[in-house]
Amino acid sequence: MIATSSESGPDGTEPLQYVGFNQLRSFHAVARAGSVTKAARMLFISQPTVTIQLRQLESAYGVELVHRTPQGLHLTDVGRALFALTERIFALEQDAVNLLTKACGALTGELRVAGVAPYFVMRLLAAFSRRYPAIHLSLSLGNSAEVIAGLREYRADVGVVGQPAGHAPPDSRLEAVRYSRQRVVLFVHRDHRWAGREGVELAELADEPLILREPGSVSRRALEEALAAAGVKVTADLEVGREGVWEAVAADLGAGITTEVEFPRDDRLHMLPILDADVATDAYVITLRERREAPLIRAFMSLAAEVAADAPAQASEEPMPKLR
After folding, report:
1. CATH code of the region 3-85
2. Cα separation values, 88 from 112, 277, 292, Å
3. Burial bucket for residue 186 (CB in 10 Å: 0-12, 13-18, 19+)
4. Region(s) of the chain under CATH 3.40.190.290
5. How many other CB atoms are there within 10 angstroms of residue 59's CB atom?
6. CATH 1.10.10.10 region(s) of the chain?
7. pLDDT attached to residue 20
8. Confidence of residue 106 (pLDDT cuts 50, 70, 90)
9. Model pLDDT for residues 278-302, shown as the tens digit of each residue
10. What are phi and psi of 293, to 5 degrees?
11. What CA–CA distances, in Å, run from 267 to 100, 186, 187?
């Protein structure tokens, strides 16, 4: 049902309607879990209670939030729009819980981390887990564009992304800490004609079949910027995900790119530095500016700054670029 205040406003206006918080919580749990049974387990309440609260919410506003089919529950268009809002609501609720918990001297709760390649995330997760063992960590992986989208949509609390060296994450809503720089390198099959060399120049790539990551890949963007600056035109013979690039090169379909720290230990492959250009990517820890003071987020960002300070060999001496 719709809850209302009991008195009219001083100017005779109608009482303000508001949504019952428990009804929203039940809807949010169903939307996240995909079923009433799993939602009830998440909330530690009975299945009938979840069903009743979901139906009350739908009935109060005369809308359908989920389609009930033999295959399960599916969000309607209105349901998907509401879920985008409840993601924000309950992320802020967790921030409030974390703030109050910190006030009594302990950090607990859940921190949702989104990141690119595991290499750039696991070192931070391990350090954070050692310092704050009571905090539950969850991790989702994707390219940098997907990680940033997760933060904007409140599906993640902090992210670890890459950018071409010298570029800050492209969103003024983000708070960013740069903590490492990685050199972009090429690699080929061990029987490739370049396999005996110590490196290649950019111009040589014009006539070489290239295996590239998807357009959202930061290492690809870094290489493309360097090629454009050198006036070298190339085309991608194949676009595929990270592991797909390694396997395509291992099958001798062309040359691939990666960062030096991500280069796989694979006897089938030979790494080649770029000799005539400094092509690199920067790794950043990011969060939404509006959430940077949430205790768990602030703790993670502070730890990232410490990790960067303890790894001078990986960090650039250049000042961090300002966010646009």
Report:
1. 1.10.10.10
2. 13, 43, 14
3. buried
4. 109-324
5. 11
6. 3-85
7. 78
8. low
9. 999 998 999 999 898 888 999 999 9
10. -90, 0
11. 53, 15, 12
Over residues 114-132, mean pLDDT: 86
Task: Give the CA count within 13 Å in the CB-facing half-sphere of 181.
Answer: 20
Q: Are 281 and 163 in contact (CB under 8 A)?
A: yes
pLDDT digits (tens, 9 = 90+) for 212-237: 988 778 889 999 999 999 999 988 88
Torsion angles phi and psi, residue 199, rounded to 5 = 170, 175
Residues composing the chain: 324
Distance CA 203, CA 232 (A): 6
**Whether residue 1 has pLDDT greater than 50:** no
What distances in angstroms separate CA 231 from CA 147, 202, 223, 226, one per listed residue? Answer: 31, 9, 12, 9
Residue 283, phi then psi, degrees to nearest 5: -100, 135
Class of domain 109-324: alpha beta
Instruction: List the alpha helices (DSSP H) in the chain.
Output: 21-33, 36-43, 47-61, 77-103, 118-131, 144-152, 218-230, 242-250, 295-309
